[in-house]
Design goal:
Chain lengths: 114, 114
């Protein structure tokens, strides 16, 4: 089973920030938080990942709480093309072993509206 | 990031037949993964395929039903054998980055079994 809990759906107005929450209260010390998204009829796309520090890249920002039990993915200026299912996954980042496998939950279906 | 292609992109097959799906990567990778996404569902890992060794299958998936080949570091195939309508799904392959361990996914193969 997935180790994360996400709201099933969210709406966001185009141009506004989309803040997607994720709870991972049982995360282990060596597990990272990964975010992927899946746009309809496409393969999942990697967005960002982090261990304990906040991370930012060209796509998004990842805010992880100090106790690491939850995180928020932030899309700073959502566009219609950001409409997708967003998956929050915790995993050990190394080669080999089932701990490193991606276990996809149901994710959050984000709808960006004009 | 890796560029991944899959063939075929979609197919309609009769029950009892088999289909082999190809996954080609534009760079050499150690680990490749095969996932299944049933209609309206999230992704489920079928198996992990390392070059030069037998694939490792997840619970609920067996080699006789989903034989996998991994002849080199850029290519893998997944065969869906003796198909039934319950096998109708999107099948996706993915590879893992050797540096930051994010996975990159192919576009998927949409299989319909009639």
């Amino acid at each position: 089973d997935a180790k994360t809990t996400q709201p099933p759906s969210m709406d966001c107005a185009e141009g506004r920030a989309a803040n997607l929450p994720c709870n991972h209260s049982t995360i282990s010390g060596n597990e990272y938080v990964y975010w992927y998204r899946q746009i309809h009829s496409q393969g999942p796309q990697y967005i960002i990942h982090g261990l304990k520090n906040n991370e930012t890249n060209e796509m998004a920002s990842l805010i992880i709480t100090e106790d690491r039990k939850s995180s928020t993915l932030i899309l700073p200026h959502a566009t219609l093309r950001d409409t997708a299912v967003y998956y929050c996954i915790v995993r050990v980042a190394n080669y080999g072993g089932s701990q490193g496998n991606l276990i996809f939950g149901k994710g959050t279906k984000l709808s960006v509206k004009p | 990031s890796a560029v991944i292609s899959q063939k075929p992109s979609r197919d309609i097959c009769q029950r009892g037949t088999s289909l082999t799906i190809q996954c080609q990567v534009d760079s050499q990778v150690t680990m490749m993964f095969w996932y299944r996404q049933q209609p309206g569902q999230s992704l489920t890992l079928i198996a992990t395929a390392n070059q030069g060794s037998e694939a490792t299958y997840e619970s609920g998936f067996v080699i006789d039903k989903f034989p996998i080949s991994r002849p080199n570091l850029t290519f893998s195939t997944l065969t869906v054998s003796n198909m039934s309508p319950e096998d109708s799904s999107i099948y996706l392959c993915s590879v893992e980055s050797g540096i930051t361990y994010e996975q990159y996914f192919g576009p998927g193969t949409r299989l319909t079994v009639t």
